[in-house]
């Protein structure tokens, strides 16, 4: 049943991606604002699965200094807050399309800069770009989204992408074509296996 639900979910967002970029952005903003009408709709702060994913993701980060970090698709900032605690010297930006989600994120992580924006409007260069469970919302614009994320990487920067496994193979294929895959960890001993993929410019 879960696989059928996921298929419907992906089909919905693939259909939305056939709209013009401006209309796609409007639809996604309304969709995620609607979902965030109640706090933490996906239980990101309390789900054992999410907590395991966040812990494994933080452990996978190379032991190096990051001056600037961007978390793309941060929702209410649960993982962004964990990043801020783990990397207190970094300037961290959390980005989401939903202003409703970001209102809560700002309350929970006042030291983080949160920005309401569409992925395709992002600019700047960062030492670490984080993209977790976001790419499947882009549908037919996956290649453009991947290119934009790569464009956010500064010199010798790291891209950290976390997505369901084995779907990550498809979602990460444009990173594989343009960046160096430094490490990949597949966590399978959960009800929803996921891959943590690290890429270097």
Which helices and strands, and how do they pair?
Layout: H1 2-16, H2 21-35, H3 48-60, E1 68-72, H4 78-86, E2 91-96, H5 99-108, E3 113-116, E4 126-132, H6 142-151, E5 153-164, H7 167-171, H8 173-178, E6 180-187, E7 194-200
Parallel strand pairs: 1-2, 1-4, 2-3, 4-5
Antiparallel strand pairs: 5-7, 6-7
Question: What brief labels describe this structure?
Answer:
7 strands; SAM-dependent_MTases_sf; seven-stranded mixed beta sheet; SAM-MeTfrase_NodS-like; single chain; Rossmann fold; 201 residues; Methyltransferase domain-containing protein
Q: Please, could you describe this protein's structure?
A:
By secondary structure, the protein is of the alpha/beta class. The protein has a single domain (about 1-200), classed as Rossmann fold (3-Layer(aba) Sandwich), CATH 3.40.50. About 40% of the residues lie in helices and about 25% in strands. The chain contains eight helices and seven strands, in the order αααβαβαββαβααββ. Strand 6 (about 180-185) and strand 7 form a beta hairpin. The longest helix is centred in the first third of the chain and has 15 residues, at about 1-15. It is globular and about 40 Å long. The mean pLDDT is about 95.
């Amino acid at each position: 049943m879960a696989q059928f639900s996921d298929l419907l979910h992906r089909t919905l967002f693939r259909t939305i991606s056939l709209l013009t970029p401006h209309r796609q952005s409007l639809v996604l903003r309304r969709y995620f604002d609607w979902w965030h009408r109640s706090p933490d709709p996906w239980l990101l702060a309390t789900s054992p699965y999410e907590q395991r994913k966040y812990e494994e993701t933080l452990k996978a980060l190379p032991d190096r200094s990051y001056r600037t970090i961007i978390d793309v698709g941060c929702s209410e900032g649960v993982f962004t807050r964990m990043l801020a605690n783990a990397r207190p010297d970094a300037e961290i930006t959390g980005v989401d399309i939903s202003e409703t989600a970001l209102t809560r994120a700002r309350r929970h992580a006042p030291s983080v800069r949160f920005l309401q924006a569409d992925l395709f409007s992002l600019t700047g260069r960062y030492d670490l770009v984080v993209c977790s469970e976001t790419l499947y919302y882009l549908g037919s614009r996956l290649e453009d989204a991947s290119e934009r994320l790569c464009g956010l990487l500064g010199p010798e920067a790291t891209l950290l992408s976390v997505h369901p496994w084995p779907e990550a193979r498809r979602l990460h294929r444009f990173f594989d074509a343009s960046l160096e895959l430094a490490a990949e960890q597949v966590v399978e001993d959960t009800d929803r296996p996921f891959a943590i993929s690290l890429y270097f410019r």
